[in-house]
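Troubleshooting log. The previous structure file for this entry was overwritten by mistake, so regenerating from the original sequence record. Sequence copied from the archived sheet and checked twice against the printout by T.R.
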Amino acid sequence: MAFVGHFWSGKHHGVVKGINLITLYYTDPHGHHQPLDYRIYDKAANKTKNDYFQEMLAEVLAWGLQPAFVTGDSWYSSAANLKMIKTIIGGFLCAGKQPSGFCGKRPMAPGTTTGDS
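Regenerated output below.
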């Protein structure tokens, strides 16, 4: 049971015991969506959720996927993730709190909330 641990659950709004599954979903222009890749978070691997995200994104892009843009919640809005997406794909949209100071395609100036620097 090496992968069982205590993790934050957005669904339960608190810490739960279980397996932390990180899934990369794809939605086509017609609204059909399906999981493309996944990782089981392993604390012993000394990786962050952002490390797993970058691995999965690089992998599906190597398969030939050509998304128009990437969406995600605030867990994945690290500067490193957004720079990677901007460099490879060009567009992204992140939801929720913006701890990294990024939203849309460019960094926000300190103290602003709209992305207009």
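The chain has a mean pLDDT of 80. Archived copy saved in two places this time.
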